[in-house]
Amino acid sequence: MSAYTALSQAGYRAYTRDRTTLFFTFAFPLIFLVVFGLIFHGQTVEESGKPYINYIAPGVLSWGVGNAAVFGVGFVLMQWRRDDILRLIRMTPTPVSAVLASRYVLALGIGAVQAALFVAVAMLPSFGLQVDGRWPLVVPVLVLGITAFLALGVIVGSYARTPEAVAAVANCLMIPMAFLSGSFFPLDAMPGWMQTLSRVLPLRYLNDGVSGALTGGGPLRDIGIACAVLTGFALVLGAVALKTFRWSDKS
Where exactly are the transmembrane stretches of this chain (predicted)? Predict the structure, then answer.
């Protein structure tokens, strides 16, 4: 417990002192919201008749939270391993679970702040997002989504040996996934084969769950399905992450 507390406090201090990372973690999703929101302000999606903001806001929020989880833990594990920090931690009675749990708690905190800030901006008159009364259900969806994407970030950070490699691998995963999962473009307007492909991507279900909770789109069971599938992704990716975790580049 003491090791977990020390790692959590150190991670929090390091994150809050890095102003560049701090700024872009929260600003990057908002930039997409502003661009897409202003371009499609007042327009509706032809296939469903719903305002475009009902699609773009939950989708961009989901992508932003998942992106932050992947990049956050991926870069840290790579840097700690490269600088032999993980090797030094291994020489103490600190289990892998304490290392990953400290990053997990930080990712949950970042995700909570991201979501609150993003929704507050999206509700401004310039964008017009109307939050449904079942919005509290977004909390378990985000927790499960962050868990799944954090595990994915651990896998990336365990294999990548340079910052460039982390950025390249993470971007190759997250950017195509954003388009294929409906974060930047409504799935209803996509070809059938792309909608089918999206069903094997965790971001699809994070989008569905967040959208259902925030905008009230679809029945409650859709949120339950999203949570169940995200739980499956979290378990599978978590098992792979623990299996592939490395304390150093030599082991």
Answer: 21-40, 60-80, 101-125, 137-159, 166-187, 223-242
Q: Is residue 161 part of a domain?
A: yes
Q: How many CB atoms lie within 10 A of CB 210?
A: 27
**Is 146 in contact with 66 (CB distance < 8 Å)?**
yes
This prediction has a pTM of 0.91
Q: How far is CA 222 from the centre of its chain?
A: 20
Whole-angstrom Cα distance, residue 17 to residue 22? Answer: 8
Whether 138 is covered by a domain: the verdict is yes
Tell me how many domains the chain contains.
Answer: 1
Residue 247 lies in a domain: no
pLDDT digits (tens, 9 = 90+) for 49-83: 677 788 788 999 999 999 999 999 999 999 999 88
Residue 127 lies in a domain: yes
Q: State which amino acid sits at residue 33.
A: L
Angle at 241 between CA 238 and CA 246, to 5 degrees: 150
CA–CA dist 212, 78 (Å, integer): 35
Average pLDDT, the chain: 88
Could you list the residue range(s) of the whole structural domain that residue 102 is in?
A: 1-242
pLDDT at 106: 93
